[in-house]
Amino acid sequence: MHRILPALFVVLCLAVTAVSSGEDKPASALILSACSKTVVGISCVREAGGEQASGFGLGTFIDWDGKTGTFLLVHNQLYSDGVDNPRYSVYLPGGVKVARLETFDSARKMSILRLAEPVADAVSVKLAATPSVQAGDELYLVYCLPQAFNYAPAIRILVASSVGSGKKGQEIITDADVASSAFSGSTSGLVYKADGSLVGMLVSLTVVNDVVTYVCSHDFLSSAISDMASKKTEVKQELKPSEKPCWFGALTSPFGKSVKSVIKGEKPSVDYGAVVSAVLLDSPAEKSKFRVMDVITEVNGIRAIGDNSDLELIFASLLEGSDISVSFYRFNAQAEDVGWELKTKTLKGERRPQILSETERYSDPFLKAEVAPFSWDLKIRSYILDRFTGVYITKIEDGVLKTFGFQEGALIVKVNNVNTPDIQSFKTAVGSLSTMSGKTVEFLVCLPDGYNRPLYKKILIP
To answer: From CA 255, how far away is CA 250, in angstroms rounded?
Structure first.
């Protein structure tokens, strides 16, 4: 069983200063500007998957799209202990983020975590072609500086006395007067040239006879950026509907500030998730006994961080008949320690019924309106979760219905007291309206500004 260093909480030092003989170097401001939002001091604690373990170090954002999450390269080795994608809590200056271990490199003692949600203001590291480093070049090392048991990014100025190559990367040799003892316990970081170009990642250092050798790897950082970009693409591709897509059938909303504000007392210890506010009758969500206020966090390891469409997209990517693991938080008032419990249910994937885009449409030439069956995804979208059936107006033009206040998104339940649960019954009910000039026809409808409150509207046939 692998062990790693005890966790230390790490505070981001925005006012990074150059550390040398006290002389302020103009290039320091350039380096600070280049990396102040790219690197961060972090502490990691494994929550699930194998025996609990922890670690700390410098973190580098290596992929960022502002929406689905963040890949974070940790300058420390976080072992999986043979467990697939163990889950970690990552302590950042702005709070705690949940992450999964994507990969680790035991030779270079580097790890890559995938955070479940974006980090505000984070900027992905930029890496161009391998910069040329020569003897006499002044280099800037961004690393974690231990101060009173806090680890914060700092900058150290190095002067290369000679440059060579080794198995792990470029070897940059300097004199020992850079106070290597102050660097003890933090043998990783990013190495920049004075012009702001990134040389690579420091993966090790050795001190022999007052000579310090820094091993800097450009290739590892380059391959990490490339690999994580590919993983992001793969994740997006995986969320395409399968040949036999599944469904969940619940009305949900993102677990954000507006939802948290209505929860009294203790709140689930996550900053993401899909909160259940209602379930459709006869849906997999109802059959599996999901409740209002359950906070769904993961489906088969994929993070649920959005609303209905995001959650259903995850289910649609899974195959009918497959086992689906759903992780969620539920409030348990009967437990000895009253509070939120992390639970997991395993569902058998059910074939998704037709959604709006898969249904037939009917355009009535007299009413000047196009209707579609009231599919289950429309019920979630329109918050009509009772046993209402009818046809849904998808398009409407100037004509008799629009004149009397009908609009797109209205649900027509009855026409002259005749139920219209599907397109065929609707066609039959309205088929003779063009011959009823001067007569009044009564519709039972649910309008977008008053869903779940059906009302009768009378129209005069011109």
So the answer is: 15
| Token pair 């005890």 in the structure block, residue | 6
pLDDT tens track for 303-361: 776 667 778 888 998 999 999 999 998 887 665 566 788 889 999 999 999 998 899 99
The 10s digit of each residue's pLDDT in 238-285 is: 567 888 999 999 988 888 776 777 777 777 767 678 899 889 989 999
Cβ atoms of residues 437 and 461 within 8 Å: yes
- Does residue 245 form part of some domain? no
Q: 72 with 167, same domain?
A: yes
Q: What share of the chain is helix, strand, coil (3-state, %, to 5)?
A: 20, 40, 45
Q: Is the pTM of this model over 0.90?
A: no
> Residue 449: which domain range?
356-460
242 lies in some domain: no
Find the Cα–Cα–Cα–Cα dihedral 119, 37, 157, 178, rounded to 10°: -20
Give the angle subtended at the CA of 166 by the CAs of 106 and 201, to the nearest 5°: 55
Classify burial at 237, counting beta carbons within 10 Å of its beta carbon; exposed 0-12, middle 13-18, buried 19 or more.
exposed
SS3 220: helix
Residues 6+ apart with CB under 8 A from 214: 141, 158, 171, 172, 173, 174, 191, 202, 204, 205
Write out the two tokens for 444.
């039972």
